[in-house]
Specification:
It is a multi-pass membrane protein. Helix content is 74%, strand content 1%. It is mainly alpha-helical. It has one domain: A middle domain of Talin 1 (Up-down Bundle).
């Protein structure tokens, strides 16, 4: 990136995606022409979001740039989850659990595995800071256990749910741990999260001006609104397709999570191709932490006016996948070096998650 003006396409695509969103919003089903238009707008918004995130990241430096993208996506995603829970009634009882667990699987196995595999295919061996990524992964495991595993075994309320006091504790603990992680990442030990090996020519180019960076930040938020809104717009079509295929309803949440996390996925892969695996891990693990750390407190507050049960506890197969993810992730991150083998293992676990989402 340099100090020149933003490419015209990157300025035009965000408002166009919002315009398409306005046209398709509220429709129960989309016609073929509108469905194609929505999909094109969604893809364009994802590409533009990654571009503007890189502009902002180059201006503010790492790890603030990856943090901005992760938090922006997650804040909008949380707003979408709470909105759907308020309007969904009992059908949305497990929406938060399904979305957060899908986000964990996508980030810790899908994004991490893809970045490790593609980056290692180009650079053979990639290095990263084990103490930074390992610490972030430890927080992910602690929060997902406190928020999604414990409700399966508590007895104060019926089913895989929390009592009011337990939910309040989970919400406060999630918010405190996420805030502490952000403090460590950006203030206390910021250098831990910088790329260990940095040979990217673009990093030495002239940084964009403050005005350009602020414009990109605004357009990034517009893009993310477009991505999440367009993902919600296509959800009725996805629901109809899932029902026609005889797949479980929870698959819709997985598909929506995949669409919403596309900007982080593209950005992580591009960073890995540039031999900046630490940036890829910052994006993946930061997104996982933001998903838990912001979603659980949000639904804890929303539960004050939500009716019906709030199902948070994971089922047996999800618990097995979570334990497997924890073990594989720990072994991957403890070494500080990555090859295609680790990437392939993570992608295999992610493939198992997708298979079980379709055929439980």
């Amino acid at each position: 990136m340099n100090g020149v003006a933003l490419p015209r396409w990157s300025v035009v695509v965000p408002p166009l995606s919002v315009l398409v969103l306005a046209v398709g919003w509220g429709r129960e089903s989309l016609g073929v022409a509108l469905l194609v238009l929505v999909c094109l707008a969604l893809g364009g918004a994802v590409i533009a979001a990654v571009h503007h995130a890189e502009v902002v990241a180059h201006r503010v430096g790492e790890p603030f740039g990856t943090l901005i993208l992760a938090m922006a996506v997650t804040v909008i995603e949380v707003a979408l989850i709470v909105t759907l829970m308020v309007s969904g009634g009992d059908k949305a009882a497990s929406l938060a659990r399904d979305t957060v667990f899908a986000a964990i699987m996508i980030t810790c196995n899908g994004i991490v595995g893809l970045a490790l595999l593609i980056g290692s295919l180009r650079h053979r061996v990639q290095e990263f800071r084990a103490h930074a990524s390992g610490g972030a992964f430890a927080v992910v495991l602690a929060l997902v256990t406190l928020s999604l595993v414990l409700p399966t075994f508590t007895t104060s309320s019926p089913g895989p749910t929390f009592s009011g006091a337990q939910l309040a504790f989970a919400g406060v603990a999630s918010l405190v741990m996420y805030g502490l992680f952000v403090f460590v990442q950006t203030v206390r030990h910021r250098d831990y999260f910088l790329p260990k090996v940095d040979r990217t020519p673009d990093d030495h180019a002239e940084a964009p001006s403050t005005r350009t960076a602020l414009l990109s930040l605004g357009l990034l938020l517009v893009c993310l609104v477009g991505v999440v809104g367009l993902a919600k717009t296509v959800s009725p079509t996805l629901e109809a397709a899932v029902a026609a295929a005889g797949a479980p309803v929870s698959l819709v949440g997985v598909l929506i999570a995949l669409l919403v996390l596309m900007p982080e996925t593209v950005a992580a892969v591009r960073a890995a191709l540039r031999d900046r695996l630490q940036v890829s891990l910052n994006l993946a693990l930061g997104s996982a932490l933001a998903s838990i750390g912001l979603t659980i407190p949000a639904i804890a507050l929303a539960s004050l006016w939500l009716t019906g049960p709030l199902v948070l506890g994971l089922d047996g197969k999800e618990l097995v996948l979570l334990v497997l993810t924890g073990g594989v992730g720990t072994l991957t991150l403890v070494s500080g070096r990555a090859t295609v083998l680790q990437g392939a293992v993570h992608l295999m676990v992610f493939s198992a998650f997708l298979l079980l989402a379709v055929t439980p």
